[in-house]
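Section 3.1: Structural characterization of target chains.
Under the original work plan, the team committed to producing a structural model for every single-chain target entering the pipeline before any wet-lab resources were allocated. The record below documents one such target. The sequence was received from the expression subgroup and is listed exactly as submitted; it comprises 243 residues.
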Amino acid sequence: MDSKEVITVLKRYINNKFTNTNLILKSIDSKLNNLICYMDQTKGVVDSNEKKIKTLNTYLYKAMRNLHTLIENSSEMAFVTGTVPEDDELCNLNELEIKTGLPKKNENKVIKKVVSNCDMIELKSENLVVKDSVVIKFLKSKDINSDINFFKYLYFDNIECCPIRYLNKNNYQYWCDGSWCDDNGGEGIADILVNNITKLYMKNNTYDNFGTNIDKFQSYIYSMSDKKYKENFIKKIKELVRI
């Protein structure tokens, strides 16, 4: 084989290699384009699902808020429409029940007025005014210890005298109408404190504050209404309010 034939064979070999390489590159380019197309479609689906999830969470949050309001209003109506005894003393006690939300069973144990140098606020179910940033800080933890710290913030740090105290043998008292009133076991006190805290949590559990996690926080807020949670709550504040 002379040199010309060798050159011809080499050129043919090189051309074949280039042709095969070009075919491989075209195949890779086509696959990359398909992959990019699939990724764009996937991104579109993800964006669409995120919008749907956001919308669903918003509707779920509104539904839970409305349910909470309905339950709260129903409870208030139950107090308003309750039967009131004719006896003047019992009538006064029923009025006390409406104001505080505490059970009647211990309200006949109103003890003597206590003279104090500080301004004592009443313990009652109410809509407290607290900065949103403060409420969010305590809600983020989603645990009872953080809730206890929130209780301390509401009823210790920012008021002159705490309207709750623990005496002995499971005997708690709350301040109402200028007097200390017994609440054996502290069930009524726990109901009011937890209710006041959950109202603040409900108000601030929004999509803007927690995004798609609002349902998790909402579930925790509703778990606070469980009897076991309230029992733990009143036990944890015992030493804080012991006199």
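The beta strands are 164-166, 171-176, 179-184.
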